[in-house]
Write a structure and sequence with these properties.
Length: 250
């Protein structure tokens, strides 16, 4: 479970996140959408505790910057940052030692197989293609078996097999009670996978809606996204009182 309460993050005069509040239930998958610069990455980085911000964030009731909370979440960053001098398996081992994981090898091997990296285990970080780096990035987010998994644009650079496998993994984790928060620009890529959608624009959550609520209104996520992000007044100015399904922030 993730609770974000009144989180505001400013860069100079820019509100990257402004008074963001929402709760994600255990065993649910939430898709985070928004145009470029909407504040998605800033929000995710606030949740994982690497930024200073105003407001409060708890993971399973624990303050997000506590060591106990950090053990509970996995993070897949938008841009993989691998160690050029560590091999693929050494990356996993390094993480396993940091988290003091014991029985991780079988699961790591399963993930290497599923994401087709099993024959790349001895390759160094800087010998991997962009897609392979992204696959390792994903495996590092998954191998700790997180209770909360945060992924920033995880599908970028993945081949169709890896995208299919990632979707399977998301479905399995959700069924196992993991809370997922996934930012993406590719709305189609998450169809059938999400329970809740958050749509951000200029630092604010403009819609917080469940799939059931949207289905009941007979609208698609894409329609809602464009209704919010392309809602303009007659003189072409963007207006922010667009009809936000689900009543905006919760
Ligand atoms: P994208 O879809 O393009 O990745 P995003 O929704 O993830 O965008 P953020 O990266 O969170 O958006 O950026 C939100 C706002 O904060 C933008 O106006 C951006 O210019 C600003 N911003 C982000 N990081 C910094 C930084 N390190 N220093 C100054 N401004 C920043």
């Amino acid at each position: 479970m993730l609770q974000v309460s009144h989180v505001t993050k400013k860069y100079g005069k820019v509100f990257a996140c402004e008074d963001v509040t929402f709760t994600l239930d255990r065993g649910s998958a939430t898709v985070l959408l928004g145009p470029n610069g909407a504040g998605k990455s800033t929000l995710l980085k606030s949740v994982i505790g690497v930024l200073r911000y105003q407001g409060e964030i708890t993971i399973e009731g624990l303050p997000n910057k506590s060591v106990e909370a950090k053990r509970l979440f996995g993070y897949v960053p938008e841009i993989p940052s691998l160690y050029p001098n560590l091999t693929v398996s050494e990356h996993v081992e390094f993480l396993a030692r940091a988290y003091r994981l014991k029985d991780y090898r079988a699961y790591a091997d399963e993930l290497f197989e599923r994401f087709e990296l099993a024959d790349k285990k001895k390759k160094f970080g800087d010998e991997l293609s962009k897609g392979m780096q992204q696959k390792l990035n994903l495996i590092l987010g998954l191998v700790t078996r997180p209770r909360l998994l945060i992924m920033d644009e995880p599908m970028i650079g993945l081949d169709p097999h890896a995208i299919k496998e990632l979707k399977n993994v998301i479905a399995e984790l959700r069924a196992a009670g993991c809370t997922l928060l996934v930012s993406t620009h590719i709305i189609d890529s998450v169809t059938e996978l999400w329970d809740r959608a958050l749509i951000m624009q200029t630092g604010r959550v403009r819609a917080n809606v469940t799939k059931a609520e949207l289905d009941a209104e007979g609208r698609t996520l894409e329609e809602l996204f464009f209704a919010i992000t392309e809602h303009r007044s007659e003189n072409g100015e963007v207006v922010f009182d667009a009809p936000a399904a689900g009543g905006g922030e919760r």
